[in-house]
Design a protein that fits this description.
Order of helices and strands: EEEEEEEEEEEEEHEEEEEEHEEEEEEEEE
Number of domains: 3
Structural class: mainly beta
Shape: elongated
Radius of gyration: 30 Å
Helix content: under 10%
CATH architecture of the largest domain: Sandwich
Length: 379
Amino acid sequence: TAVDTADLTLGIQAAPDPARYNQPLTYTLTITNAGPLSASGLTLTDTLPGAAVFGSAAASQGSCVQAGGALTCTLGSLSSGAAATVSVVVTPTGSSALTSTAGVSASTFDPNLSDNHRQSVLSLAPYLDAFDNGIPPGWTVIDGGDGRGSTATWTARNPCQRAITSPASAPWLMVDSDCAGIGDTQDEQLISPVFDGTACTSIQVGFSNQFRAHGLEIGDVDVSVDGGLTWVNALRLQGFSEGYPTPATRTLDISALAAGKSFQVRFYYRNAHFDWWWAIDDFNLTCSKTAPQLPALTVSQHDSADPLTLGNALTYQVTVTNTGAYSATDVVLSDTLPLSATFGAATASQGSCTLTSDSASLRCPLGSLPPGGSAQVSV
């Protein structure tokens, strides 16, 4: 005898992706019921991203409550073929990838639980600065040249009014060796604050720049993971112009240097003496995290005897199978027992089963299932 079911599916979409530091991010959770029955007692749970401030949650039906970093939405019933959505707004405040782990459940039996849970890992540009307000708080300038002030080190003043075009836009940060004059030398460091890359499996540094070369001056982009004690070079500009006359956009993959660590970025203009200039703009970081692979559990049922005979024993078997490529741990099967029937016994091929306090359903902790493994419960 076929068991009528409601097959729920959960999906996540986010915008913008990658997310931006200190800018609102909206992600939408969509629950779809493939039927054939309506799903009742619909509940959505979502573990909110840790490095973000919760803003709001709006459900297309029902309501949501946020507490302690978790969102719980009571959504009522969902008819066959229908969908419900929950839109969540958060603001990233950290520098690591954003992870949202959500799940949907219903009191109606669902034969396929593998698509009821989703983990979305969003890339994050945890820091985006166009230097519109000059040198940002937390950034450090070390004037190691002749020390003659802002005309000879990193500044947003554009002291000689260079006409730098798109994609850069004024103001930008620059060292202008030519403007400083023939008597000055430049050994100028622009050092970022410390960024938290501990949750990142890949990190990219992006910026626009114009390096107008004249002699042997050097433009280095360096990375430090020890608070600036040591630096490793990620890019060197020397002996050629880059981004002149039209600024160039650079993206550097610093994953091998900084992924999984706290780090800083340094722009180091040195060995310059009455040369040209180096200007940078639109500094940004992108942190990505590989989504952990989840097991895929499916549930199937069959019974005997079929058709049923009033007053005789019915045995049905529920099989849980891990069709995914990764092991499933702490597997628990819940089974709402048939109405108008007297419970006899339940035997599990692994683990055990107990009746709930109202004797209306079984709860069977089955332990772990390897890829391709299965467990059976006979009722």
